[in-house]
Amino acid sequence: MRITVSVDGVDYSDEVEPRTLLVHYLRERLGKTGTVVGCDTSNCGACTVHLDGHSVKSCAVLAVQANGREVTTVEGLARDGRLHPVQEAFHQNHALQCGFCTPGMIMQAIDLLADNPDPDEDQVRHGLEGNLCRCTGYQNIVNAVRDAARRMSPGAGPDAERVDEAALVDRTPMRTGGGE
Amino acid sequence: MIPAAFDYVAPTTVDEAVRALAAGGEDAKVMAGGQSLIPVLRMRLAAPTLVVDVSGLTELSGVHDDGDSLRIGAMTTHYEVQRDPVVREHARLLCLATDTVADPQVRHRGTFGGSLAHADPAGDLLAPALALDAVMVCVGPSGTREIPAAEFFVDYFTTALAPDELLTHVKVPKLTGWGAHYEKFNRVAQAWSIVAVAAALRVSDGRIAEARVGLTNMGPTPVRARGVEEALVGQPATAEAITTAANRAAEGADPPSDGNADAEYRAHLARVLTERAVTAAVST
Prior knowledge:
heterodimer, A: 180 residues, alpha+beta, Ubiquitin-like (UB roll), DNA polymerase, domain 1, 2 domains, five-stranded mixed sheet, 5 strands, globular, B: 284 residues, Uridine Diphospho-n-acetylenolpyruvylglucosamine Reductase, domain 2, Uridine Diphospho-n-acetylenolpyruvylglucosamine Reductase, domain 3, Enolase-like, domain 1, 3 domains, five-stranded antiparallel sheet, four-stranded antiparallel sheet
């Protein structure tokens, strides 16, 4: 089945089997290996990407369901060689140990901050409940997300403006289901 | 793992979907948000020959105010239900239960109707649907029929839907101004309910005038705690009356024993969680 999908701002058109998972399409067909597979049960969230602006686990979406839609992966966050503020905050706060969960954590953190720009610690932990860190390095991840919220708050400088255009899409609830 | 090969269609109308299901026969499978089905396919616990993806049926998405009741499209996502002002005002129990479903990523794709049709006894929307006397609207080759929640859930992962029928909408009678609470017990984040209790109550002049209590994962289907409801109605909304009523929570239930909890412990949980749920619902 032929699909056309925008990934990190680039349009792709490919023939895929219906059973191909979105994460496999991203990694194996497009070479977007920044999105990783961490489990086989849809628990870990390492494969989180944005589909039409909302976070999804790309191991629980078929590639055919992304037809005609926009996908953003962790590889599409940086602009002009500058990290996204959430990436920068993860870097500055040492919010990773082995780093395997980081792409999914960052993508889900961006989604969380789009819904709630100033989450408290409890809200961050709940917002990231679909993402597991097997190093159990949650404390600095939570710190990083709250730091990112400060970096992205109104008046925080150029970073905030950049996020507006880059990542924080309209949060009006929208359908993220598939179809042709 | 990678799913076994299947054919895939994504109809754009309910009619098309029903025809596709009929043509696909017994090995066709409906996919809504796919948040339960895709993992099952991946683990090869199921291998349908045809997947009918109904998630693109925009006519089945959204919440409509029908006067005395709400009509919730089966393809309305959990994310949309959580944020819907009409649901929050008239069927708040659904919002509260939906808040506890899985995790944000799954709630973006998973659907209200998909969860009900999947009929996992540990799923969090079945007991609220039962407690709220929801009615499932289904479409098949011979037309439309309505199935009350009490008849819809038949067994583990089994509903009254025929293989060629599609759940299109759910009618939920309005309980405007009622208190509500969903008390879920699980051990870790994003886990299924070991037991959970859905409670909706109308309190008038300090007395409980009406009560609805549904139990999650206390049997192969959601359970209505009729004994608790009877014991609550007419009583003052006091801690003592609530405790007495909650002690009847496990009456008539047939809870499973598994690695999370044995049946006796589940019965204990039902009583404790009912007390908490009713207490919280009274104070909202």
